[in-house]
Amino acid sequence: MNMPTSPVRRLSQDVLHFIFLANAEEAEIVPCSPQSSWYEPGSPLHPLITTRRSSQVCREWRQVILSSASLWGRLLDMDALQQEKPHWREEVLHRAGSTAPLWISRAAKINPHGPPPPAVMNFLFWILYTCWERIEILVLRIEVEDFIGWTSATQMMMQSAPALRRFTFLPPLFIDVDHRVLVPSMFSNNAPCLQEFVAPILHFESTSKFTSLRSLTTSFHRKFSTLTGVISCMPLLEELAVFPSPGPPSVHEFDLDQLLRSTPNITLPRLKDLLIQGTLPACLLLAKVIEPAAGCALNFEGDSGTGEVFSGTVLAALGRLFNKYFTAYFNFYHETDTDWTFHVGVTEFMVDVKLETGLDGDLPSSFQLSWENPSSSQGEEIIRALFFPSLAASSSSSSRESTNAPRLLTRFAAVESLSVWNRLLESVKPCVREIFAAFTGLRTLRGSKDDLSFLLLPPAPLITPAPNSNTDASSDNNSDHPPASTAPSPVFPKLHTLTWSHWALSTSDITAGVIPILQKRVEEAYKLRLLAFSGYGDLEFGLANFEVMMQEYVGPLVGRVRWRDGQDVVELWAEERAAGGLIPMDY
């Protein structure tokens, strides 16, 4: 760098100091789930390594960095302090001075399959013991046994934490299902600055009150009322994640109906992200009693844990809950140009519904129910309860509340752009077609061959098994499970653009998928304006044959066709078709 002429040279020391502090905030980028990776000790992304290298650029930068105790207080990054000799660890702590707030992060292992370095662990526990009241951010990734041993020996978790703003404790396996630790008088109920608490294995006691919390990650308590009591004292919560807990469920199926009526609501006016995993009764009850902010994204994963069929009361409650959250979510995020993604999955063991916008930063909403024993009929019952709550209401005792529940289905008519992805049992497809028929305002549709064929082509006729001579003919008429009706495919009268997602396009995809869909739209007087192929995969029959098929067979059925040729985008227009015109586009 040519220092006399460099623009960086003209920055004041205050601006430089602000930049160095911002670089140190990388210490807050710590994963809170097992799916995320932890940086290796030598990674340049560690703020301590970034700061040390910055101090070697020039004398002025070094002076600013070495003179800032608040900067070094943020750099107690244990992943970058795993040297055998203690000199560098002691030097970093010395540069932090005696009063600056401390950020302690990521006490991870160099070898994930071996024990943590003893010197690093001893240094960590020594800082926690001697500097507890200065700690502003504490992120621990250590074994549960080490954590329990430390808390038992020092009782530090029961001490006031006047500066603590963020606390995270995640064992290497994220949630150790064999442990749940109740910490009596956590932080002595005195952590006035605490905004984020991520520790699924640590349980508050019923008297805990941390009113400043913005983000809480915990797990279900043995007593459901303890969890709700703690949450009710956190009116500023913006994010809440509750994970399963080992042992008996906190809410049993036999008292769910009573609890749904008697448990008071909890108003959390700022809550925008709610994740709940666990037994179905506990998840259902917690989501039901919480009154979140408008547009709160719900991620619900309930496991019935039994092979029993869901009762009418539970189905009605699920329908109310689903429509309460998903309708509010839709209303909050929907604009005319919103690109929605909608997924419905039904297997023999699970129902999964997901709704999300195409905007970066927006949280998706998902609703998943699972059970142990295979049941092909259970999925359809649940889907109908979620999307057609008035039908489920007729079999429950709380029919009046169910009938008046908001219905997501009535809002789908406002959607103009939609991506679909479905995984369905054959028996459920007629019901799901009824759901998609609500998208009457749809103009743009994206999906794979299977999804688009499912929605836009007539359903295959049901094959009725031949009568058995040993079976009473009247038994079919009296069956408790009549065959599903073949609901017609949705019409989508305003649809004008179809995007065909693919990885490897074959001849059969064109002849058995694309052409029949386009022909059906023409026959119904709903000819498409644009068919776009969005895949980057191979064309199994070659580009030249693909272009011929587009011109001769596909082109006459649609206004224009668009596809990719390498990095180029090619379009075939109706008016150019007679001359074989292929128009390359610069996108």
Can you describe this structure?
It is built from 19 helices and 23 strands. With 587 residues, it is of the alpha/beta class. The chain has a domain of 121 residues. The strands form three sheets. It has a 19-stranded mixed sheet. A two-stranded parallel sheet has the order 5-7. Helix 18 links the parallel strand 19 and strand 20. It is globular. The C terminus is likely disordered. This is F-box domain-containing protein.
Rg estimate, integer Å:
30 Å
The averaged pLDDT comes out at: 79
Taking the sheet with the most strands, its summary is: 19 strands, mixed
Gap between N and C termini, in Å? Answer: 38 Å
Instruction: Please state the structural category.
Output: alpha/beta
Low-confidence segments: 27-39, 395-403, 471-485, 583-587
* Total of helices: 19
Report the sheet-strand fraction.
Answer: 15-25%
Helix coverage percent:
25-40%
What general outline do the C-alpha atoms trace?
globular
How many individual β-strands?
23
